[in-house]
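As a warm-up, study this chain.
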Amino acid sequence: MARTPVLAAGGIVLRREAPPRIAVVRLRKRNEWVLPKGKLDDGETPRAAAEREVLEETGHAVDVHEFLGTLVYDSGGRSKVVHYWRMEAGGRPVRELMSDIREVDWLPLELALARLSRGYERAFLENVGPIALQAAALAERERRVRARAAAAERRRSRAAVQPAVEEEPAVETPVVAETPRSWRSRT
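Now compare it with the structure written out below.
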């Protein structure tokens, strides 16, 4: 009889830097470098589990974006099914790392690939890493376009709201001709 697979979820977690950095975590027990992920709790959706696990393993709150794919591998005689999302980490950690994690490192894609201990995670990241980076770059461009459009709209709104400056009515100043000297009285 086949054993029920272990369901897990995680993230390809990016930080906005030049070049963008990807989170890899070092396990305490095995001293291996892996992508942040973990098992689903009872009743938990894969997306919610991915966000929770990434927070616990990296210490960073994240914004979860598009689904990137599923990695299936053998783990202790059972299949482990891990769903991954592209995520963006906030600037600073918001909590301590869970006890199973020794450290987190943020690396450019090529160095993250070299750091990972497990071949199947390297192969997965090699395939979805460029997709995640491309999606993040596109999202950043769209964010900048929206920000510029919003700023332009605010400027237009401010200009429309400002009251029109009423000009003083023009008053004609009478032209007074100067009396020629010869006509002036000589008193």
